[in-house]
Amino acid sequence: ATTRAKNALYVGAVDELGAMSTFSSWGPQDDGRLFPTLCAKGVDVLSTMPGNGYKAEDGTSMACPTVSGTAALITERYAQLNQGRELPSALLRGLLANTATDAGRPGPDFQYGYGIVNAERAVEALEQGWYTTGEAEVRGSYTHTVKVPKGSMGVRVMLAWTDPAVPKAYRYGESVLV
Predict the structure, then answer these.
(1) What is the arithmetic mean of pLDDT over 8-31?
(2) What is the pTM of this model?
(3) Which pLDDT does position 1 carry in this prediction?
(4) Hey, is 74 helix, strand or coil?
(5) Is the Cα torsion angle 42, 46, 48, 53 positive or negative in sign?
(6) Cα 76–chain centre separation
(7) 16 touches 40 (CB < 8 A)
(8) End-to-end Cα spacing for the chain
(9) Digit-coded pLDDT (tens) for 88-133
(10) Do 102 and 78 form a contact (C-beta atoms < 8 A)?
């Protein structure tokens, strides 16, 4: 039996032109969930080396710091805009995924996830207030009205939540979502 994170960001690696790397893992996860969540540059990334040097490296371990740093800056901007309050993790994951630049097949896919991280669009969504948070009871409802400006070509809506932890081991293929 295995356990798998369900409230995490999974990051794939692309090159400087946004093409998928040869080493990045693809989805879906065994229970059908989207994998990766999004991508960032992870090919030929200049990295520090022992002895006060630098070297170009490849890996999802090169892409993850870009997403982590972007997440940290978005968290800081949220606090600036919201009297120092902490950014809910579900909102952060939703912002990063919904504002990613689509790549690969149109729409979310099992190679690029929601696309390539786009810090500028994520911060714009925060600053424009293009999000809401709320709660709905089981079998309940939550309503939010969205004003779409005249002349808009469309709207992207994403529902994100923090799924509760369950202390059990899941069988391969068994859904981990509560």
Answers:
(1) 94
(2) 0.88
(3) 39
(4) helix
(5) positive
(6) 17
(7) no
(8) 18
(9) 999 999 999 999 999 999 999 999 999 999 999 999 999 999 999 9
(10) no
Q: What is the DSSP string of 2-38?
A: B---SSS--EEEE-TTSPBPSS------TTS--S-SE
Q: Provide the token pair at 20.
A: 């998928």
Which is higher by pLDDT, 45 or 174? 45
Q: Determine the length of the chain.
A: 178
Which pair of tokens denotes residue 97? Answer: 């995924």
What torsion, rounded to 10 degrees, do the Cα atoms 175, 5, 69, 146 define?
30
Residue range 129-157, pLDDT digits in tens: 999 998 888 788 888 888 888 998 888 89
Q: In angstroms, rounded to a whole number, what is the distance separating the alpha carbons of residues 129 and 126?
A: 5
The residue with tokens 């081991």 is: 169
Residue written as token pair 């948070």:
133
- Rounded distance between C-alpha atoms, residue 138 and residue 140, angstroms: 5
- For residues 21 and 59, give the distance between their C-alpha atoms in angstroms, rounded to a whole number: 9
What is the residue whose two structure tokens read 């969930």?
33
